[in-house]
Amino acid sequence: MSEYNGKKLIKMDFLRYWHVFMLLLLAMLAGCTQQQNSQDLKEQTAQATADVKRDAKAVVAGISEGWSRDKQLDLNTATKDQLLSLPGVTAAEADRVIVGRPYNEAGEVVTRRIMPKTEYDKIADRVTAKK
Known about the structure:
Elements: H1 3-70, E1 73-74, H2 80-84, H3 91-99, H4 108-111, H5 117-123, E2 127-128
Parallel strand pairs: 1-2
């Protein structure tokens, strides 16, 4: 075998292995990209699930608010959560309403300075004080 044929044979072997190496490298990169897409899909699914959960809570809150709008809330018996469901009522105001019980009429929360009149005006049609 001549020296020229030997070099040509080595070069052909090198090219063959180089092609095999490149194909393996491409396959690995494709596999990594597919996993990344899988991770993106998981993240998108998690985000969509969180959005649906948030929207469901908003729907429940809206339905609850709709039901409570028809029925007045008794300031003498309402829980803190019920008071907080009223528009504009803060946790501190709800606590003060509970501590200031009993009330003869709902407007006493203003005269006793438990709640400012501007805040009370927002909830006046939704509250009562039953004896």
